[in-house]
């Protein structure tokens, strides 16, 4: 976690950092911004989907939060966009090895949604689920405090469908499989419940700085 904070500070200077890296030709594997075992994908942004990309129009997109909350609720596209806009500029890390520096996403902080449903004190974990059925579990603490977003823009453009558009979950301090594409909702629970990859041997939390790739790491 201390590494995550260091990165956040550096992220304010992402352009400078990238230029410096290019001029010095520093070996990518030694870049202190890269979590262990990761490489810099530079201009590549691989698509990793267990499902076929759904044909989901913004008018058909909804986002729901239920489970251990005082007031379960569903937002449509317009209602979600009425919440305060929030952006992320920083890095993302896929468990298959690629990382990207200085990516920008736009959307709304998950805190803004959670404030409206008011999580109960008993809530400790969430299962995020997609409109396609993909699921992933996270500690509630990992999606609060300004560290998680519902994102519908990338680089100032609408998020492409193959990358989760109209909207995806973004939890960039954890491995990117936690950032469910085509996000449909969060269910708040009083226990941890493995999602799709976690049920197939991947780590329950997935902190890239501690290289939590597989269960037991
Ligand atoms: N719905 C859904 N979300 C998903 C996935 C998926 O297969 N389905 N793959 C995860 C994984 S393993 C990664 S690395 C990222 C990939 O996002 P990208 O395709 O935009 O790079 O999405 C995550 N979210
Ligand atoms: Mo991934």
UniProtKB/TrEMBL annotation:
It comes from the Bacteria. It holds the Pfam family Oxidored_molyb. InterPro entries: OxRdtase_Mopterin-bd_dom, OxRdtase_Mopterin-bd_sf. Residues 1-12 have a biased composition (Polar residues). Gene3D superfamilies: Oxidoreductase, molybdopterin-binding domain. Residues 53-197 form the Oxidoreductase molybdopterin-binding domain. Residues 1-37 are annotated as: Disordered. This is Oxidoreductase molybdopterin-binding domain-containing protein. It comes from Streptomyces gancidicus BKS 13-15. The lineage of its organism: Bacteria, Bacillati, Actinomycetota, Actinomycetes, Kitasatosporales.
């Amino acid at each position: 976690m201390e590494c995550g904070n260091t990165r956040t500070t550096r992220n304010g200077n992402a352009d400078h950092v990238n230029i410096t890296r290019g001029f010095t030709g520093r070996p990518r594997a030694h870049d202190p911004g890269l979590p262990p075992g990761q490489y810099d994908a530079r201009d590549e942004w691989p698509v990793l989907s267990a499902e076929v990309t759904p044909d989901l129009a913004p008018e058909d997109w909804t986002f729901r939060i239920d489970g251990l909350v005082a007031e379960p609720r569903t937002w449509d596209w317009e209602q979600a966009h009425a919440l305060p806009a929030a952006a992320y500029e920083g890095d993302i890390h896929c468990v298959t090895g690629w990382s990207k520096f200085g990516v920008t996403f736009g959307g709304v902080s998950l805190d803004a949604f959670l404030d409206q449903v008011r999580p109960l004190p008993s809530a400790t974990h969430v299962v995020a689920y997609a409109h396609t059925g993909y699921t992933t579990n996270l500690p509630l603490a990992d999606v609060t405090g300004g560290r998680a977003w519902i994102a519908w823009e990338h680089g100032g453009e609408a998020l492409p469908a193959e990358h989760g558009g109209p909207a995806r979950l973004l939890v960039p301090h954890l491995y990117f499989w936690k950032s469910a594409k085509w996000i449909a909702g969060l269910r708040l629970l009083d226990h941890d419940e493995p999602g799709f990859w976690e049920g197939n041997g991947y780590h329950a939390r997935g902190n890239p700085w501690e290289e939590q790739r597989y269960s037991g790491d």
